Every structure is written in C-alpha cells, then in structure tokens.
UniProtKB/TrEMBL annotation, chain A:
Organism (species): Pedobacter agri
SUPFAM superfamilies associated with the record: Activating enzymes of the ubiquitin-like proteins (SSF69572)
GO cellular component annotations of the record: cytosol
Matching SMART domains: RHOD
Protein name (Swiss-Prot/TrEMBL): Molybdopterin-synthase adenylyltransferase
Role according to the record: Catalyzes the adenylation by ATP of the carboxyl group of the C-terminal glycine of sulfur carrier protein MoaD.
Domain Rhodanese intervals: 283-369
Enzyme Commission number: 2.7.7.80
TrEMBL record, chain B:
SUPFAM superfamilies per UniProt: MoaD/ThiS
Pfam families, sorted: ThiS
InterPro entries in the cross-refs: Beta-grasp_dom_sf, Mopterin_synth/thiamin_S_b, ThiS/MoaD-like
Protein name (Swiss-Prot/TrEMBL): MoaD/ThiS family protein
Domain of life: Bacteria
Amino acid sequence: MDRERYHRQLILDGFGTTAQDKLLNSNVLVIGAGGLGCPALQYLTAAGIGRIGLADGDVVSLSNLHRQVLFATTDIGKLKTDVATERLAAINPEVFIQSYPFFVTRNNILELIADYDVVIDATDNFESRYLINDACVLLKKPLIFAAVSGYEGQLAIFNLADENGITTNYRDLFPVPPAKGEIPNCSENGVIGVLPGIIGTMQAAEAIKIITGIGKPLKNKILNYNLLEQSFYEIEVTPAPANSYVLPKDSSSFLKMNFGNQKADIKKSVIEIDISELEDIRQKKNTLLIDVRESHEVPQLNRGEFKQFPMSALQNLLNEEIVEDHIILICQHGIRSLSAAEYLHEKYGNEKNIYSLKGGIARWKNFFTS
Amino acid sequence: MEIEIISFGKIAELVNLKNLNIDGIKDTDGLQKHLEAVFPKLKEIKYKLALNKQIIHANSPLTSGSVVAIMPPFSGG
C-alpha cells in the first residue's frame, strides 16, 4: 500500500491503517456507469477499494456528459466500461477494476453479485432496480440503493441488519414495480447534472462506512434529498407485513421471476421494433406514424410524415378514430411510445398492429436527423 | 386539527400543500381517500406514506401536528 496516497485518511481519527486495510481487502460491485455510477466509481477508486466491479452495457452519448463526469466529449460512442476502466486505472493503479460490458439480467446477475461484498445500484430503470434488489435479498448482499429525479434524490441501504437484526429491502417500500409510463425517468423528466454527483458520492460514502465500520450507515432508512431546498428528510423503513410481496427462495425460482424486461411481458399485440423494421412497415399501405413527444422536443420531425400527439394530451390520441391498420409510435427513448402503444392496444385490441420504436429517436439519431 | 404534508418528486407537483386542516379525518386511510379525491391524479401513481418519519404499512391514527410524507419511487440515475 502506498501510504502517501492515503495519508489524509490514514491520519483521520477513527480511520487509520485498520480501516484502510479493510478497504484494500474489500470488493464492491457498481451496477450502472451513469450519473450515479461515475462519482461512486471515482471516489471508491481514489479511496483504495481492493477490487471494483463495473457493469454497464451502454456506450457514452452526448446527453450523458452533463452529469457523467468520468467521460469526455471524445468518448462518445465508446463503451462506458472501456472508458471508465481506463480513467479509473489512471486515478489509482492499485485498485483492480473488473469490467462487465453488459447489462444485468436475471440470467447473469446472481453469478455477478456472488463475487462481491457490497452492491451499489446506480442504474436508471425500475426493471434493473427490482432485479438487483431481489438478487441481493437472495444472496444476502448489502445493497446501496440510490435514485434521482429532477432536483431530488433517494438513498438507502437494504439487506444489512441493524442492531436489532432487522433487514429491509426495496419491496418493503414499493412491493411491485410501477407500470410503464407511471413514473417518468431522467430522459423524460430531466435531471440537474450535479444531483446524481451528490447522491452517487453519498453511495460511495456509505460503501466506505459499511466496509470500514465507521459511523452509522443508512440501514433501514431512506433519505430524501432536495437540491433546490438543500434539505434532507429521513424516513425509517420497516419490513412490510408477510405476503405483501413474494421473493424467490432459490436461484431456480429466481430465474423464473418476471422482472418486466423480457419480451413476453409486453402485451402480445404491441411490438417493439428497430429502425429497419420501421422502414419495412412504413412501406406498407395503411401505416400511420405517430410522434408522442411534446411539441418543444428536438429534433423536430416532418409533421406531414409523423403526426404529433403529445403524451401530455394522450386523450386526444385515444379519441381519434384511426383508420390505418398499422400504427407506429415513436418518442425520444421508446418509453412513452411503448406506454402510448399499450393504451392504443387497449382501445383497438387485435384489430390493428401497433408498434413502438425501441430506443426511440435517440437510439436511431442518424436516421432521424439525416 | 391540522397536520403537515411533505411530498416528493412528481407527488409534490400534484399535492401542492404543506399544512392541511383535516377536521373529520381520523386516520391515514381517511387522509389518503381525501387526498385522492382532491388530487385525482394521485390515484395513478404509486407512492408510500410515512407518518412522523416512519413508513406505515397499515391504517394509522392521525393526531394534531402529525407529519405525513408522501413518497413516490424514483428510477433515474
């Protein structure tokens, strides 16, 4: 261990070599290298965690950069795990960075987290959050949860027994995931860049506290942070009554769980398509293309070709008597369009073919802007 | 009797009140019913109630000065 590197925390009252050794002998898995993951990874690396796992299947995009401060403009298009591994190794070559360049699924997550002492959920969607929660409960791994929206953040530690031996998990707060479109995500609702910086840094702080045993980790509590008010509100979490939710008891039942990210979950007649399928379908007669974004969103599309029905006035779309047989819905990221597609499916049943462009305009930018 | 309401995220946009006179309302179930009648959009969003900084899993009595927090799940990162 390079003593000079860690000098300022080695001389800290209550920290010292004992705590530093614990960090060096520990390992932490960070799932998601986004707004929360970037600062968490930077501070954990700088602090001298022995081994850090980093899982993310995404590439860097321009709209990431206002909050994902580990990445530079020249990194756009590169795998986040590749860029992050390089930057983190430069920050502290003593730390072993293990990169997993893929998204977590029910098929890979158990194996992934089995190898770590502490798990940090730095993802950006409910499917992954429930998947990670349930996997951590099954394998009894402490989970540092955080999520942000707009100007507010949430932070909690689950699966870590308090002084009374009580543990809680995310399902004690929200037993089942929200429906698609019920709660907006960052790409729809927006997020101020510095906010995940604050909350992700707090995740790193909690990991360091859990590992070294200093201070009071946020066990069985959820902290609500408001950046505009600069205020904190802590709520105590208690286990929900028995049978409020069902968690898998072993890995084989875990593998059968429905986490909402499997194709079969989408109602039969709503089909998520990619851009080449969109191209094929639009050639058919009787195809209607609908943009459900708000009128201020860019890039603006040709209104003659893409009829606009903003999601904020969904009822207008539902009131419309559509004559076309094929309806393709698009939006910025393919989340609102999927939700709108489900509503249309409820109205038309199997009478019409209803499609949603997966990944939205953001994923197929070249197609829409050329 | 008056209680304090604290709300977060999307809920704060819907439920724009801090202090609430709840004459005739005795418990959190009654409060929930009242809020969902005044703010119908609340019915469409998942949320959890906390009473005096503690999550509640069942109907709980309210007293003057009770603080009720209404917390939605966040997914962003």
